[in-house]
Design brief:
mainly alpha, 2 domains
Length: 312
């Protein structure tokens, strides 16, 4: 039967899982709320861009469309991640979040290409833009983006998709500010080139968001060491244990955002040659990794130091 420490650990793990499930449910509700806000104003901004002939508004609407797709994908992926693990998928669908975020980042790059192409055409063939209508729609879009960002703000650190959507909405808000500025310039001066210039600025904001998201998701997909964890610091912490002689084949990566995984071979000193000592060493190392580095999923292969020497 498990000892008291083991039962306490099981209860703590169960409470963490329940708390995590509650957070995921709250996150899904906030995603639905944010998507409803952005979807309503997306329609308004597309209509406004077509009516006022504003490329800046249409560029911002293109970014809003990627936000809607990102939010829809995040909701779908949030549903997938609740499905239990199976013998065929031992981690369930946890990696779906990363794949979805990568797809969203790639889509942003495509949108930037379309915005730049449209801006180039506007410089060659300028269009007459209605400044007053553009200004009104841009202000409405700004309010929508700020409202969506506010909805996601409290849960932005919980997973990659929510944080990505939050950052996109901030970039969208800046894009709407640019569209407001362009509308004011056109209304006050009649200088039409400001519209494609602002659309290029919005495109650069989208590009910045997309590249950042792609870099983060790619780092997870190639099993890079998670940001915020120092490989050498973790190695040193393991090797400072009184019974650890050396650590080899240490690997640290993210299964998905907020889910670090660690594996390592631990060579034990000769004085730790009994089963109770091995069990104590394993328990202490796992507790240290959990408390100091927040690594819950650690697989440690314990070996006597003479074993690697005898079996290279």
């Amino acid at each position: 039967m498990p000892d008291n420490a083991g039962r306490h650990k099981d209860r703590e793990t169960h409470r963490r899982h329940e708390h995590g499930a509650d957070l995921r449910e709250v996150s899904r509700k906030r995603l639905w709320q944010a998507m409803a806000i952005i979807l309503i104003f997306l329609v308004i901004e597309i209509i406004g861009g077509l009516v006022t002939h504003s490329l800046a508004l249409l560029a911002d609407a293109g970014h809003m469309l990627t936000d809607v797709l990102a939010l829809a994908l995040a909701i779908f992926i949030g549903h997938l991640t609740t499905r239990p693990a199976t013998p065929e998928r031992t981690f369930g669908f946890l990696r779906a979040e990363v794949i979805g975020a990568f797809i969203n980042g790639a889509t942003l790059i495509l949108v930037v290409g379309l915005v730049f192409w449209g801006a180039a055409g506007r410089f060659v063939h300028p269009a007459q833009v209605h400044g007053a209508g553009m200004l009104g729609v841009a202000l409405a879009g700004l309010l929508a983006n700020l409202a969506g960002a506010w909805v996601l703000h409290a849960n932005r650190r919980e997973n990659l998709n929510i944080e990505g959507a939050f950052l996109h909405m901030l970039a969208d808000a800046l894009g709407s500010v640019g569209a407001v500025v362009a509308g004011l310039v056109i209304l006050l001066t009649g200088w039409m080139p400001v519209d494609p210039l602002v659309s290029i600025a919005i495109g650069l904001l989208i590009l910045w968001s997309g590249i950042g998201l792609l870099r983060r998701t790619l780092a997870i997909l190639i099993h890079a060491t998670p940001p915020g964890l120092d490989y050498h610091e973790v190695m040193a912490a393991l090797e400072t244990h009184e019974y650890v002689a050396a650590v080899h084949d240490l690997h640290i990566w993210l299964m998905t955002s907020g889910f670090p995984v660690l594996t390592a071979n631990i060579w034990l000193k000769p004085e730790c040659n009994t089963l109770p000592c091995w069990q104590q060493c394993l328990r202490e190392l796992q507790n240290m990794l959990r408390e100091r580095f927040h690594i819950e999923h650690a697989t440690l292969q314990l070996e006597p130091i003479i074993y690697p020497a005898a079996h290279p």
